[in-house]
Amino acid sequence: MEAFLQVVSVFSQWAIPLVILIIIVGGAVKRVPMYESFVTGAKEGFSVAVMIIPYLVAILFIIKIFVASGAFEDIKLVVGWMMEQIGLGQYRESLDLIPLALTKPLTGSGARGVMLEIFDVHGPDSFLGKTASIMMGSTETTFYILTVYYGSIQVKKLRHTLPACLIADCAGIAAAVVLGYFMYG
User: Fold this and answer.
1) Is 59 among the domain residues?
2) Is residue 4 part of a domain?
3) In-domain check, residue 96
4) 32, 73, 109, 176: which could join 27 in a potential S-S bond, CB 3.0 to 4.6 Å?
5) How far apart are CA 165 and CA 158, in angstroms?
C-alpha cells in the first residue's frame, strides 16, 4: 500500500506538467504558432471574463442578501415542522444540511464554507459531515454555471435548462441524504 501511495504521489505531482509538455510537443509537431495561439486565446478569455462580470456580481449580490436575511433558519423551521407532520421527526438532525443544499446550487465556495461549518460543529466523521461530503459531490453549482456559460454567449432565456438542472440538484440532494442514512445513519 505504501508503494502505491508513493506512485500516486509522484504521478499527481507530474500530471499537469506532463499534459502541458504533451500539448507543446503536439503543437510543435503540427507546426502550430503556439505563442500567437496562446495570446489569442488569452485575449478571448479576458473579453469573456469582462462580459460575464455583471452576471457574476448579480448572483453574488443575491447570495449575500439571502444569507444575511436569515432565510436558512426560517426554512429549517418550516421543513422541521413539515417533517414532524408526516412522521419523519426522527430525522431532524438532517435539517442542518439545508443551508448546504440551498447554497450549493448558487456557489461552490459558499457551499464549501457551509460544509466546513458543519465539520466544525459536528465533525467531519459524523453522520452530518459524511453526508455533507456526499452532497457536495452529488450536486452542481447550477446558477453559477448558468450565469457563466449563458452569460458568456449572452443567452437571456434559459427555457428548460434551469428546471432540468434544479431537478437534477434535488435528485442529488435526496440521493446524498438517503445514502448518508443508508451508509452512516
Assistant:
1) yes
2) no
3) yes
4) 32
5) 11
Report which residue type is found at 89.
G
CB–CB of 181/152 below 8 Å? no
Tell me if residue 124 falls in helix, strand or coil. coil
Report pLDDT digits (tens) over 126-177. 999 999 999 999 998 888 888 778 877 878 787 898 899 999 999 999 899 8
Largest Cα separation within the chain, whole Å, is 69
Domain that holds residue 59: 52-184
Question: Is 19 a member of any domain?
Answer: no
Predicted TM-score (pTM) of the model is 0.65
Q: What is the DSSP letter of 143?
A: H
The answer to whether residue 7 scores a pLDDT higher than 90 is no
Percent of the chain with pLDDT over 90: 22
Q: What are the φ/ψ torsions at residue 140 (nearest 5 degrees)?
A: -130, 160
Residues contacting 51, CB < 8 A, separation 6+: 151, 152, 154
Contacts by residues 74-82 (CB-CB < 8 Å, ≥ 24 positions apart): 75/102
The answer to whether 79 touches 113, Cβ cutoff 8 Å, is no
Q: Which amino acid, 135?
A: M
